[in-house]
Amino acid sequence: MRHLFFLTVLLLTIVCQGQSDSTQFQQNWNKAHSPLKATVLSAIVPGLGQVYNHKYWKTPIALIGIGTCIYFIHTNTLTHRFWRDAYIANNDNDPSTTPVGIAVGLTNSQLDYNRLLYKKYLDISYLSLIGVYGLQILDAHVDAHLFNFDVSPNLSLRTTPLLHPKFAGLHLSIQF
Q1: What angle do CA 149, 151, 157 make, to 5 degrees?
Q2: N or C, which terminus of the chain has less Cβ within 10 Å?
């Protein structure tokens, strides 16, 4: 009961805090090119933040990355279920249920090893999905911040050797 009370107080605090910042949120959302809008769009639909930032070539990369992670999640789920069912069938003391396919003739430790191996692969697949999803959101946010960054052709870096009687060095000159 005490935890429920603290959770209610915390949620009310967040709601009250959110109401006072609604005008600031509205101002950030309505900027000419808002990083907040790019981040939210990318979080709702992967790749949409990149489209908002006019970086159309990044959208397929984000979608292929997420699609690849989903494919491996599906494949590892099916394989993990196969090895789990084979392990259960081998250990349930019911002679009518036996492992099938490539699991026939394997020991309990081999079945358990394969089950745990594909469980680990499944966990890695989920973590990869979270990572790719987070990276595409971060990419949209950073691109939105750098949207108006001036990259003019006048920017150059020149290196020349510096020779001095007492020492030798390298002279770097940046011109705008």
Answers
A1: 130
A2: N
* Residue 151 C-beta-side C-alpha neighbours within 13 Å: 4
Among residues 165, 155, 141, the alpha carbon closest in space to that of 52 is found at: 141
Query: Which tokens belong to 31?
Result: 């900027």
Q: 108: closest CA among 98, 123, 122, 121? A: 98
> 118: number of CA atoms within 13 Å, CB side?
20
Pick the closest to residue 114 from 97, 98, 96, 99 (CA basis).
99
What CA–CA distance (Å, rounded) separates 39 from 17? 21
118-165: pLDDT as tens digits? 999 999 999 999 999 999 999 999 999 988 876 666 666 666 666 666
Q: What does each C-alpha distance from 33 to 43, 58, 110, 154 come to in angstroms?
A: 17, 18, 57, 25
Backbone angles phi, psi at 98, to 5 degrees: -135, 155
